[in-house]
Amino acid sequence: MLRLARRINERLHRYMAVPALALFAVFFVTPLVKGIRISLTDWNGLAPDYHYVGLSNFIEFFHDDRAIHALKVTLTFGLISPVLLCAAGLLYALLLDNRLRGRGAVRTFVYLPAIISPLIMGYVWLLLLNSENGALLEVLKIFGRESVYRDWLGTPDEALWVIIAVNLWQFVGYAMIIFLAGLQGISADVLEAAKVDGAGYWTSVRRIVAPLLMPAIRINVITNLIGSLGVFDVITALTDGGPGYSTESMSIYIMRSSFNGHTGYATAVAVLMFLVILIPVSVALRLMKQADQDG
Amino acid sequence: MSYTWSAASKRWIATIGAAALAAGLLAGCGGNGGNGANEGQASGEASTSASSSSNPSAASPSSSGTEASKPVKLTILNGTVEAVDWLNEQIKTYTAQHPNVTIEQEFQKSASDVLKVKIASGDAPDIVALAQVPQEFYDQDLYYDFSGETALWDRLTNASIKSSVSDTSRPEKQFYLPMTVSYTGLYYNKDIVAELGIERPDTWEAFTQALQTVKDKKNDVTPLYLGGKDSWTLGQLVQYLPLGSLQQELGIEEANKALIANDAAKLGLDQTGGRIETFAKALMDFKAAGLVNKNGASASYDNQLDAIAGGKAAFVIQGMWALSDILKKNPDANIGFWPIPALMAGDKPYMIGSPDGSVSVSEKSDNRDEALKFVDFLVSADVQKSYSTLRNSPSVYKDAEADWSILSRDVTADLDVAFVASRWPWTPSGYNSDSIGRTVQELLVDAYKTPADFAKVFKDNWDKGYTTAG
């Protein structure tokens, strides 16, 4: 009896993982497996029947100019945004980790946008940037400087950069909070010792703070990569993928393909998007591991 | 036995888990693939709840398939924002008379997309009040066929309305009931037009001249205002102009057949000097001459209505559905309504006067008979009078004649000179007016060097739209 109790006790941690694994299986693994199955069919999303079409949906993706453009938009947004978010978040965190007057208020203001839905935030910015009666244009008019205004959201080459900027403005606070938590975990003694040894501020940041912040950097990079590569809401609110298809990301392309009765194909693109997320995340992890070892 | 994993394995599992978490959600969007009833045949079920009372012969708006005392809950998916309050009022009146019935209205801006999701997830609403139910739902007999409701069709102001709401693939069936006839045309600012002495422009040349006059003499007024961020507004321009011209040449039914069959010879979509190319050239010329707003691709439908309501635009091309919002923005707006000038030489000016405010009932609903009774109430004379006034459009029912709009006189005069299409030009479901509008957005932001480039892309997208129709 005692042995049985001990055995149960030893294995308890494994049993405790069962509910979480079950939920993961039901809500993530099952849809993923079903999704892969549907990606091999010509299902239109409604008809009771469909046929297996092998890999033709995947091949079609690479022959569709619009799909390739959506892939480029996704990669541009998904790779630039995390870099900017981490850099700006770190700068804010370093600045606000000092004893400055009003730093609590600044932290709150910087973080506040992150708690609002990206869709709502997108619409707020749309009201600000609207080319007809947006707040920015109205303010410029007051100062007689409306010639400075450009219809950024209506210009294909510029709209994506506006979206990246809005996304940066919204989520920089989130990155900052993670960095701040990391900074506060660094012992003041270590920094003090470095100072005594003659290290300047930037030397301390580069040689001591950065290596000790690696866990926070890792979390920021990975979460921002995943979030940015799956971007949907902010684009929908600001440009709806336009003008034309110039800011259409893969997730918007998937939704439209699906609603246009091309569900098998849309699911194949979703499976490809899994790889689009997986590959940069894996590369980032490998690079950070290497940096860890080198450091 | 040890259960510890190496750090590398943990990292890999965490990576794959995180990516699976993100991609699983997206891949799962297409979920509901197989179903028990059809396993082995890889079934993408569009299941609705099983009908226990699906006896078509017993179902009619006047039949009583549900006992009065039995509580019934009906759901309505509404895609017309202007009708939300009106529908709530009707629900209130109806449920006061039928205390056992509760009716829940859900408004969705993208109602047709939401409907697809609801049907695919087995949550089809009992009633759908939607301007355009996707054709595939009718093809699968998911909606009640009203063709046998003789008493209703006898009430129509014009017998041809019945054929104009016939199913595209099976003309003997009518899967929805119309409420009003909605006209689309050219709104104009009466004050500006009178001041500049502009006459009704029936041809494209006359229209161009009218716009040029506005530009030359009214610096602060946009001659023709486009609200292209809402891409459907641009997609509809293609339906009114080149596809409308096709209806004039072939006749409405023949044009529709050619559109449905994608009869390349009759459509001539990429033909040199053809309708699509002419449309592209017209828009490019307007843009180059400053006759449309510079932000035509990024200004919204709401901006467009603001512009005509506030006298900042001389002309906008819109449907009668926009009138109530224009008057809300400016109750004193002095506006008139002309047919859309003919794009092609030899054509008449064009209007669509098609049945609107369609209501469909889910054939597979457990509450189908009760839903049909509510629809019977909705199309009753008094209720229809109020709907006609709300929508600023004439009712399709003889007994529901009302003073429907400040533009009713204009429309009566327009009908004498215009080619009036009783059906919208058909578009493939994979290239609907929303998608077509995106191609026009590209035209407005100079993505095409020549009108022929636009016509080529349009044709490619159009052809592709058939393969995605499912």
UniProtKB/TrEMBL annotation, chain A:
It holds the Pfam family BPD_transp_1. Keywords: Cell membrane, Membrane, Transmembrane, Transmembrane helix, Transport. GO terms for biological process: transmembrane transport. It is a multi-pass membrane protein. Its main location: membrane. Belongs to the binding-protein-dependent transport system permease family. This is Sugar ABC transporter permease. It comes from Cohnella fermenti. The lineage of its organism: Bacteria, Bacillati, Bacillota, Bacilli, Bacillales.
